[in-house]
Amino acid sequence: MSIRRCQILLMVLFWSCCLIASDLNSTQAKQESAKPLVAPFSSDQAHASQEAWAQHLKTKSSFTNKSGLELVLIPPGEYLRGSSPADFEFAMNADSKFEPEDFSNEQPQHRARITKPFFMSKFETTQGQIKKLLGHNNSWYSRARHGKEFFGELNTNRLPAEGVSWFDAVEFCNTLSELEGKPPCYELKDIERWENSIQKATVRMLEGSGYRLPTEAEWEYACRAGTVTAFHFGDELNGKQANVDGSKPFGTATAGPNLGRTTQVGSYAPNHFGLYDMCGNVCEWCQDEYDGATYDAFSNKVAVDPLGVANGEYRVHRGGSCDQYGFYARSAIRIQQAPDDTSSDRVGFRVVCSCGPVTDFGPQAAEDEEEPEYTAAEDLKDADFTNKRIATLIRNLSAKDPELRTQAVEVLGWLGSESRESVPKLIELLGDDVSYRPGITAGIAVSVSRQASDSLVEIGAEAVSPLSVRFGSLPAKIHIEAIFTARRLGPLARVLLSQFVKQYETEKDKNVRNNLLAAIAAIDPTGKTALPILIKALRQADQDHERWLAATWLTRSDFLLGVYWKERAAANRWLRNAPADTQAAGNALVSALSDQSAQVRGAAAQALSTYPETAKSATPLLLKLSKDNATYFRATSNHAGGGATVSDDAYAALALMHSESDQILPQLINPDPVLSGRNADLFFELVSFSKHPLDHLLPLLDSEQSADAMAAIARLGFAALPAIPKLESMLTYKKPRIAVQAKITLACIDPKGHPALVQSVQKLLIDERADARHFLEQIGPKNAFAMSLLNEPGTNKQKIDEMIQELDEDLRWTDMQQQDDLVQLGPIVVPHLVQTLQAPATTPRHRINCLLVLARLESRAAEAVSAILGQLKSEFPRVRESAAKALGSIASYPPESQVGLRKAMTDPRPFVRAAAAESCGAFGTSAAQVVPTLIKLLSDDYLDVRVAAASALGRLGSVAKNALPKLDELKDTENILLRDTVRDALAGIAVK
């Protein structure tokens, strides 16, 4: 072989190797670029990923199949599934009719992963397509039905198909698979039709690669397309962004168009994936069978390609329609409907088909695995938190997994001041908007930001100094959350007061101003600084919300609520030494009763209830406002509120003028005697203080308020004997419910005179007559005979047990109402609560709720002391804390109570020691045994414990005289809170 030929051969081999290497590198690059998406991501990122996956799968990012359907490639990815608390906030601002239950099937919000790429039809299935494939079109807006009256001569083939059953959608998928030469995804058997539509069939999923309906998880992932807002185009919808009924907008007060009909598919802008009409036009059937509790399984883990339940009665549709409000078009909305239902003109569908293998999520999965394995539940069982465990928790504050992050934030908060090293990182997390259901509390999902605020408040005084040092350098978003946190810390954050005042005077941003105003009021327990600012804001603020805030915070009760619980002594001093210019506050509130804003008028009326002398002079104005039915959304200064009317708040002020009741009541009844809800309760409270209550109640027996009037009469007992003739005439009333209430009222007024009625009422209760039970419970606490009827064997056990069980169902929304109902029933619930506490299967949170009810029952729960003492031995520290607090609320203390609390004051958790010390203050003169332990706690490492011990010693009086030397040493300590509490304690011991 010649040298020349060898050179040529070597050259060919060289370039061949280069080309092979180039192909390998290109293939590797394509594979590396085809990674799963992780929300949030932008439109550019979505398009780039679609192209990368198309190259990786050797297909196109979009195409039109043989049947004319246009499909778009949806890459695999991860997103937050379900609704967040922000959705509820938007809904309440848009329309106060929404309740937490409206979101229950969309929560907890959690991470979901779609591991397979798939194609989804770009548009909703049209009438032309369903006619072509199935040979019929039952759509309401079709030419054969009502299309002409809505669309004239317009061709309706491009309108979405609706009026289709879920079975019809499945049949369409199978027919489409057959035409496209793909194996079907469903087996349809035992088909029954009516007017061409399938009303009944047996459906079985197959492993085919053909066309099918999207799963709920796939649909929401495709709909959101990397967004985390309520809709893929933002948080506002009024009919301009998508085809919905814009007369009731979502997230905005501006109403928009309401077409009242469908539009041609693709009439509105697409989302990041290039999908049209994912919100509005028609709802879309999904594969899944409906279960409202589906998301509960993923409160503490990632949902990987999740499916609904098996054998469900209903199927799910998503996305909202043209005749529904914007609320029903949110990305997270889940609606159930019978699979055979074709009556709705609002439900259609789109199809998907699989196109690639499962992806392992590459580096993302590896990063998740690097996180330390631990659960909050395990931490709670560990009585001794080591420094290493706290370090792990602090490290998890930076975890990418929101579950780990949220759990770490919550546990650190439960540790209180013990976790002070985490404060700098918690301050940074005040800007973290990711929402996740906390791992310990089984409540609704909260944002990491709000959870971090909760934890900083739990840590208390230890968080104030780092907060004040960093305040000026915080980013805007975190800055507002930090103001909110300082406000919740109350007087503990008083070092920030002057800074807040200065910023408020120059601040232009309305949101920041509002937060600053509330913070100034909350952290100033004396009111000397806050009161003039609040009065000025009430008179001169240029926005309704700011004036409303000023009026709300001008109530003494709200000052108390704003004071953090650890500084109750300071709050009491404020009440004893209220500033002299409180009269100026009262006058400003009277002027605000004529404000143009209903929200301000209502807040001013409510605030006047704490300025009785001023309110008395404003009685004519308040009586006028009692007829003012203007509504507004009330969010109180410390927690979420609800819808309210000015009338409600006027009644709240008038109801406290007990001495004036006989003068006020006739004016409330005339000319309009119709009362409702809270107003009725307040009205009858005034009646109870009247010198001649029957004069006001008897006329109402012939009005729409007869039920409330009878409840008030029943509470009067023997004093209501003159009402018997009128009540006896009502026993034959046409409405059975009124007749039953008249019977119960007569039995309560004069049981000896109506023994037959007593037996009849007892029979009603045994038969579980709901209206009789409700009426008796309403009367119960103020009528001994009603209580005895409720306490009859077999009449109340099941009802009370159900109420106690409901305590553990939904921590955020229902517990307080259930507690109120149980407390109202009084001591008859105590044995049931004790039984629940002692049951081995009772959860820690349920035990805490039971202990809270017992604490609110106070001396009426004396028989539960032994059971409460048993909870001091619980392995869960928050249960021990609640038990210690409960003992402090009950006046009866057997000797073992002191023994139990003395042991609790040596608990490894500082918040348990503080609670036990606080409770010891209620022992009175019998508390000699606990004084030595309280004195030791004055030297505790934790401020909260020292403050609680000093407060308890002050309440014990002369019994605690041995503590005087130690208290005297602390009276000039640098810490303001401890110093004030110690000085109060010295004064208390000296006085008593």
Can you give a write-up of this model?
With 992 residues, the protein is α+β, with helices and mostly antiparallel strands. 50% of the residues lie in helices and 8% in strands. The protein contains 47 helices and 19 strands. Strands 2-3-6-15-9 form a 5-stranded antiparallel beta sheet. Strand 18 and strand 19 (642-645) form a beta hairpin. Helix 36 (797-806) packs antiparallel against helix 37. The radius of gyration is 34 Å and the shape is globular. Residues 18-32, 362-386, 438-444, 557-580, 635-642 and 809-815 have low confidence and may be disordered.
Q: How would a textbook summarize the main sheet?
A: 5 strands, antiparallel
Low-confidence stretches: 18-32, 362-386, 438-444, 557-580, 635-642, 809-815
The overall pLDDT, averaged over residues, is 77
Task: Note the quaternary state here.
Answer: single chain
Structural class of the secondary elements? alpha+beta
Spatial arrangement of strands, main beta sheet = 2-3-6-15-9
- Range of helix content: 40-55%
| Percentage beta strand | 5-15%
Task: Compute the CA-based radius of gyration.
Answer: 34 Å
Q: What is the terminal separation in angstroms?
A: 120 Å
Shape: globular
Total of DSSP H or I helical runs spanning 4+ residues: 47
Total strand count, please? 19
